[in-house]
Design goal:
Strand order of the largest sheet: 3-2-1-4-5-6
Strand content: 15-25%
Mean pLDDT: 95
Number of strands: 6
Radius of gyration: 21 Å
Order of helices and strands: EHEEHEHEHEH
CATH architecture: 3-Layer(aba) Sandwich
Low-confidence stretches: none
CATH superfamily: NAD(P)-binding Rossmann-like Domain
Helix content: 25-40%
CATH class: Alpha Beta
Length: 146
């Protein structure tokens, strides 16, 4: 299986490494050559320096033969546009896009883009955690009848 991971920050590099560990052929794309260091000295996958909004960069990364793409740059706009281009222009059906804005993530998910929203995930987990707390009831202010 071949994957292209766009954005090689903390999230993208971890996804790329995990997929590679699972036997995928992975190429990471990032604007910064220094991002390659996040993949570690033993990285055996590909790495392309450039902006994924440029078709040439996507082609150099192997998008035309990819089975899946993960788009996890720091910008929602970039992630959405690149995800849609990969999905529509290159016909990749498994495109997963990180979108930080919950409303936008839901909007694009309803239109067929597979979105992951870490903000919504954090909100859900935080609400579940606080609701699970054992909080003592306040003392009653009603008079005690004898």
């Amino acid at each position: 299986m071949n994957a292209v991971v766009i954005g090689c920050g903390r999230v993208g590099s971890a996804v790329a490494q995990q997929l590679a560990d699972e036997g995928w052929q992975v190429t990471a794309v990032d604007e910064s050559e220094e991002a390659l260091a996040r993949l570690g000295a033993g990285w055996k996958g590909g790495f392309v320096v450039g902006h994924a909004m440029e078709s040439e960069i996507l082609v150099r990364a192997g998008i035309e033969s990819a089975d899946a793409a993960v788009v996890a740059t720091s910008g929602d706009n970039t992630n959405i546009v690149v995800g849609q281009v990969i999905q529509k222009r290159y016909g990749i059906t498994c495109v997963v896009v990180r979108v930080l804005d919950p409303r936008r993530a839901e909007f694009y998910a309803k239109r067929g883009l597979r979105t992951v929203c870490p903000t919504q995930t954090a909100i859900s987990y935080l609400l579940d955690a606080v609701r699970a707390c054992d909080i003592p009831s306040p003392p009653s202010s009603e008079p005690v009848q004898a």
